[in-house]
Amino acid sequence: MVAGKSGGKEGGLLSSENIIIALLAMLIFITSFYFFSTQLREHDVRGLKVLSRGDPLTEMTSILSGSKTTIKAFAYPGEDARNSYVALLTAEIAGAFSASGRNVSTYAYVPEEVNSTQRYIGCDESTDFCSNEKIVVQLDPCNCMRISDGKIYVLYEEEKIKQPSLRTQLRGVFGGVLRQK
């Protein structure tokens, strides 16, 4: 026997251990690529924080490309003061559509409403826009817009909505996107 060699078969490049290591490395690479390619990234659009996978303005233009857009506003039961903030944001966004000559419909959804017939406000048998919303307005501590699932989520908390600059920025972003069409 020659010194330094074992008596068994030598592992070559195609040994089962090397194949397993290569497969594991490939699996880790593919998983990492998928994870990072599907992650929302933070962008600054005219001073607003926007979370999206790609270019936010391109994504918004694509989402709003149809002839009709629906805005779904998450509301609260009864005469809750938070509804004023939701309505204010919804009106600013709808105003951008109106100024651009675009058709927009809005409705409120009240998920906490006990009476199921009052969960959808502004919807009845004569309306056909209470589904397939492209924009969702909701009170949320994100203080951002999030573009995902083919929708634009406008997510701000009360204190931020009180600032007139936010409403002006939102109208400007939506107005700019609508003018690109």
Summed up:
With 181 residues, the protein is α/β, with parallel strands linked by helices.
What is the topological layout?
Elements: H1 16-38, E1 41-45, E2 48-52, H2 56-63, E3 68-74, H3 82-99, E4 103-109, E5 120-121, E6 135-139, E7 144-148, E8 151-156, H4 158-161, H5 164-180
Parallel strand pairs: 2-7, 3-4, 3-6, 6-8
Antiparallel strand pairs: 1-2, 4-5, 7-8
Characterization of the model:
The protein has an eight-stranded mixed β-sheet with strand order 1-2-7-8-6-3-4-5. It has helices at residues 16-38, 56-63, 82-99, 158-161, 164-180, and strands at residues 41-45, 48-52, 68-74, 103-109, 120-121, 135-139, 144-148, 151-156. Helix 2 packs across helix 5 (164-180) and helix 3 packs parallel to helix 5. Helix content is 39%, strand content 23%. It is of the alpha/beta class and 181 residues long. It contains five helices and eight strands. It starts with 15 loop residues before the first helix and ends with a helix. Mean pLDDT is 85; it is low at 1-8. The radius of gyration is 25 Å and the shape is elongated.
